[in-house]
Amino acid sequence: MVDIHLDAIINGRKVSRDVKPHLRLLDFLRDDLNLTGNKEGCGAGECGTCSVFVDGVLMKSCLMPVAKAQGATVDTIESLAKSGELSVLQKAFHKAGASQCGYCIPGMVMAATAALRANPFADREEIKERLGGNICRCTGYQKIFDAVELARDVQNGRVPATALLETDTADGEVIGKNVRRIDAPSKVSGRLKYAGDMTMPGMLHVQVLRSPHAHARIVSIDTSAALAMDGVESVITAADVPGKDGFGVFVHDQPIMARGKVRYVGEAIAAVAAEDALTAKRAVAAIKVVYEQLAPVFDPDEAMLPGAPVVHDYAPDNITKHIPIRVGDVEAGFAASDLVIEESYSTQAIEHAYLEPEAGLAYVDHDDVVTVVSPSQNITHHRHMLARIIDKPISKVRFIMSPVGGGFGGKEDMIYQGMLALLAMKTMRPVRLVYTREESIISTAKRHPSRTTLRMGLMRDGRIRALAMRMVCDGGAYGLSTEGVMRKAAILAAGPYAIPNVQIDTYGIYTNNTPSGAFRSFGALQTQFATESQLDIAAERLGLDPFEIRRINAMRDGDMTHTKQKLGSVSLMRALEAAEQASRWEAGAPTVRGPSRGDLNHDDVRPSVTLGTRFASGDASSEAAE
Amino acid sequence: MARKRGRGMAACWYGIARTATVDRAAAWAEIDDGGSAKIVTGVTEIGEGILTVLAQIAAHEIGVKPEHVVIGDNDTARAPEAAHAGASRQTYMIGNVVALASREARKRLVDVMADMWSAPAETIRTGNGEIWAENTNHRITMGEAVACAKNRGVVPIGSATFGTDTTGIKDGKGGDGSGRPWQAYVFGCQVAEVEVDTVTGEVQVLAVWAAHDVGRAVNPQGVEGQIEGGVVQAIGQGLMEDYQLKDGHTSTSGFAKYILPTSLDVPRVNSIIIEDPDPIGPLGVKGIGEPAMVPTIPAVMNAIYDAVGVRVFDLPATPEKILMAMREKDRRETMAPQAAE
Fold first, then answer.
1. Of the N and C termini of chain A, which has fewer Cβ atoms inside 10 Å?
2. Does the distance separating the beta carbons of B8 and A401 come in below 8 Å?
């Protein structure tokens, strides 16, 4: 393809150069001009972190072909704090604590800037609507709204600019104070470099071949055509691993690339390092793999049945981990109960959806140390595993944790760093891999989907006499954190309640689904969802207020847990009281009394969204007819 | 009425730091030329604000301003091990160990000044970038004090390690699960107020009151940020997010199909921070990252039941499931009016 010539004004400077016509505006800004402040989060116009101004209009630069910028004026996040001085809005983001991982923030700052340009007096609800095209996964958006409102008020002179400054710590005490985040200035200005923003001289680009099958034997892999391509430096498969292959947080059952067979769709099979990403992609397409299909298993309950397809030979029953908890005698407890409730619950797989897709850089340094720079949540464990996989002493393996653009447990797995290290060793050049959003979603861990049955036996006065729970989780194709998730799920399953008879069983099961792994709240979310739902069912049956039934059963200072650990101070009663008072909770049994409640709709409750009514041309008051 | 409101609540508990194993972390501290503090430890920011928390802790312990704390890069070849960034352990494990290392560095400097001023070490105070001896007119900047120490051949450094007194649980064959999985526990409670559109089945979570024990709160704004983010992630799982697979292939490989909470989906979150200090660690801190997420879903499901009398047992509570459950409830009630009594 012939280059096209582009003339544009970018961040106030004239740019005139030849560009590849297949580039998006985002690629041109980030790769050709090294303006890496705006990020790529999804490549599909959904997340907004790539948002820039084109001729003053907020645009998602991942959706715009570079040729469309011909003659345009483009302003990126870098334009807002050009001389290093943050804009009022950026200062407000700093002050309000509006940035956490920071990856969405460049786009969020651009969208908020556009919002206040469009309406300098926008109220909180309008601000929400104007930020509706930008996703943030960390903050829950509250502090972002706070920041935009603060900037609005400072700009309008309603609040003095000193409101943007650091909290006063003149008394010398800094603990318990809202000290502004020290990493925020670099995040709100786009100056912080995440792994995907980093480059090194002579760097190669990596792409990965992934399995189209859920369960298949690999008969052969032919990389010769890929290796013969101009610009391709190296192609690796499991055969190139020099040491003992295998990673995982608890069991090391996952090879860095599929070995012998594939166990889920999206599993890495081979990786290519080439002079540019496009060449690497073409080389991946030229790798020929012959598969022999194997019977797959997708349902964890079916996977536990005798004769089910076996995912890993070491676990012929497909059980990754079973965790039991036993206290007292549950059957005797149920027999002595006045009321026994049994229900089933299920939770779905969910994606971490950190805005920063996986990315990493690897090189071999002057001391022959294999170095991996990546947003890893566990560099300590990763270096242990990598040392064994590449057969080097730990002193010759180095992990550097780059700024993490959201983790939530999803970046605890060493899912791609092994391939990077191996390619750096093969080529003795720096190599970089940046996942697309699709790659990130299909190939990395999810929250464990669960199926739970819960039996709860209670006395008429609300005391829980016995609790029995069985939870089966789909762990997917590899172990990752499954064992730990099952353990935490079980330990915390019965809730913070003193119960004399408890029986918990959690099972993590291998299937040919996308692997499940660590995810914020690590199994405790699944089990306590069931227990806390069931407590309300019990409260209705017994005519008790939901707070009351929990108080009746609450662990107190010095009580034993279900793992027979003696607790010290137990703050549960304080938490119950605080939530009850703050929400002005109207006491009563949970008998569908929403229609008659008197505690609803106070000024600490947001208005319900009636999207679009603000812009409706005609009668926006049709809601009032209800 | 097309829209009905209701409220629900749920409680939670959670363990802080690694589960059923011995957790540990280490840090180095140095009071540097000019009176700034340098902290090096093997784990860092994943967005929760730990760098700021560590800067506050080092500043508090050494007596400098947080903006004069420099935190070294996280690097297995250049920093001491602090294990991983997860398990709601950062403030607890790394915060406590940075406090201990900072105390040791401060003690080195204090000992030099006590000797120079012929004052008992316990009368030496530090704060706001200054060091002084109580009831004397000895008062200099930390920068000057570092120069004094170096002139005497002392570099004011400290190092520390912090480990937990925990055990595995008996979860092998025939085990009862007994053990001491954590040394710090936190508790919480949330109330949710929802509005259910009975025509579309759509649920809006309008407010959440979230009361959480976090131990001593180092940066309350950061704690709120964790609670707000956790609540909204939980609402994502509770109401909309769904990674779908058919025969191992996903149909939700992008954000057009995998639906995440946006600015229009989030409730007002009213955080109530409870500080029940941890008696074991030197700072009294605990944690909040994960527990913030645990009670939200059952609180919302209990609120939906309060509003329209249907309970969702299978997440997520999509509009389709709510409508189906409401229709089923109506059908049951019209077929057997007596049974409802």
1. N
2. no
Q: How far apart are CA A334 and CA A456, in angstroms?
A: 8
pLDDT digits over A373-421, tens only?
999 999 999 999 999 999 999 999 999 999 999 999 999 999 999 999 9
* ipTM of the shown complex: 0.97
> Comparing A4-79 with A88-167+182-192, is the CATH topology the same?
no
CATH of domain A88-167+182-192: 1.10.150.120
Instruction: Name the band, by pLDDT with cuts 50, 70 and 90, for residue B1.
Output: low
Clarify whether B228 is annotated catalytic.
no
Cβ–Cβ < 8 Å for A102, A183: yes
Q: Look at residue A612 in the predicted model and tell me its pLDDT.
A: 59
Q: Tell me the average pLDDT across A476-503.
A: 98
* pLDDT at residue A194, as a whole number: 98
pLDDT of residue A623: 40
Question: Do the chains contact at B11 and A550, CB–CB below 8 Å?
Answer: yes
CATH architecture of B3-16+184-335: 2-Layer Sandwich (3.30)
CA–CA min distance B120, chain A (Å): 22
Q: Tell me what pLDDT residue A609 has.
A: 86
Q: Which of residues 97-116 of A touch B (CB under 8 A)?
A: 97, 100-102
Confidence of residue A302 (pLDDT cuts 50, 70, 90): very high
> Looking at the DSSP assignment, which residues form a beta bridge with residue B270?
B209
Q: What is the 3-state secondary structure (H, E, C) of B74-124?
A: CECCCCCCCCCCCCCCHHHHHHHHHHHHHHHHHHHHHHHHHHHHCCCHHHE
- A555: helix, strand or coil: coil
Neighbours of A84 (CB within 10 A): 8
pLDDT higher than threshold 70 for residue A25: yes
Dihedral angle computed from the Cα positions of residues A271, A275, A276 and A279, in that order, rounded to the nearest 10 degrees: -60
What distance in Å separates residue B214's CA from the closest CA in chain A?
A: 10
Mean pLDDT of B28-32: 98
Instruction: Tell whether domain A4-79 is in CATH 3.10.20.30.
Output: yes
Please judge whether A585 and B250 are an interchain contact, meaning their C-beta atoms are less than 8 angstroms apart: no
Q: Is B309 on the interface with A (CB under 8 A)?
A: yes
Which of B181, B233, B253 lies closest to A441 in CB terms? B253
Domain boundaries defined on chain A: 4-79, 88-167+182-192, 302-351+446-549
The DSSP symbol for A566 reads B
pLDDT 10s digits, B311-340: 999 999 999 999 999 999 999 998 875 554
Query: How far A376 CA sits from the closest chain B CA (Å)?
Result: 9
Strand partners, B15: B185
Does B186 contact chain A (CB < 8 Å)?
yes
Is A612 in the B-facing interface, judged by CB distances under 8 Å? no
Q: Of the CATH numbers 3.30.420.40, 3.30.450.40, 3.30.365.10, 3.40.50.970, which one belongs to the domain with range B24-163?
A: 3.30.365.10
Task: Please give the Cα distance from B82 to B59 (Å, whole number).
Answer: 20
A128 touches chain B (CB under 8 A): yes
Cβ of A404 within 8 Å of Cβ of B85? The answer is yes
3-class secondary-structure state, position A29: helix
Q: Are B25 and B93 in contact (CB under 8 A)?
A: yes
Q: What is the pLDDT of residue A342?
A: 98
- Pick A302-351+446-549's CATH classification: 3.40.50.1110, 3.40.30.10, 3.30.365.10, 1.10.600.10: 3.30.365.10
Q: Do B66 and A131 touch (CB under 8 A)?
A: no
Q: Are strands B130-133 and B124-127 parallel, antiparallel or unpaired?
A: antiparallel
* The predicted structure's pLDDT at residue A621: 41
Every domain range in chain B assigned CATH 3.30.365.10: 3-16+184-335, 24-163
